[in-house]
Amino acid sequence: MAAISELIRTEDNGTISFGDYTLSAKAKKEDYEHEGDLYKVKTFHEITKLERNGMFVYESVPGTAVTDFAVKDASVSFTVEGSADAQITVQLEDDMEYEIFTDGVAAGGMKTNMSGKLSLSVELSEGKSVAVKIVRR
User: Fold this and answer.
1) 65 and 58 in contact (C-beta within 8 Å)?
2) What integer is the mean pLDDT of 65-88?
């Protein structure tokens, strides 16, 4: 998978892909339209951040490349790659319970905070992608 050279793109399956953890300097792309929403991505080796209509959606430290990012009524799914283990934060519903799966294996349940943010750690290494799925209980 590696980096998304155009910083953000729409895939044939209707999902979006974004991020480039190989960049040494910050790069951003604003006003990317996808399904009626405007997205903004900021990315480089230290952080990758995605916003939709000016609101927080995704953040990873250090930076990552994300493919097939899909938000549905009760779930968020994506595949992530990076050069090192990453702390990922996603925006979900406020004060709700979610089950987290990495590469199809249940990693446990978590509850979002009052602002709806859920943070998880993903073990990453260069050239290896990990599928993440977060499902509301």
Assistant:
1) no
2) 96
The pTM assigned to this predicted structure is 0.95
Separation CA 91–CA 134 (nearest Å): 11
- 72 Cβ contact partners less than 8 Å away, ≥ 6 residues apart: none
With respect to residue 40, please indicate whether it lies within any of the assigned structural domains.
Answer: yes
Residue 85 belongs to domain spanning:
8-136
- If one counts every other C-beta atom within 10 angstroms of the C-beta of residue 134, the result is 23
Contact 132, 78 (CB under 8 A): yes
pLDDT mean over 13-30: 97
Q: What is the CATH number of the domain that holds 124?
A: 2.60.220
Give the number of other CB atoms < 10 A from CB of residue 101.
16
pLDDT at 3: 76
**Which residue is associated with the tokens 């859920």?**
118
User: How many domains in the chain?
Assistant: 1
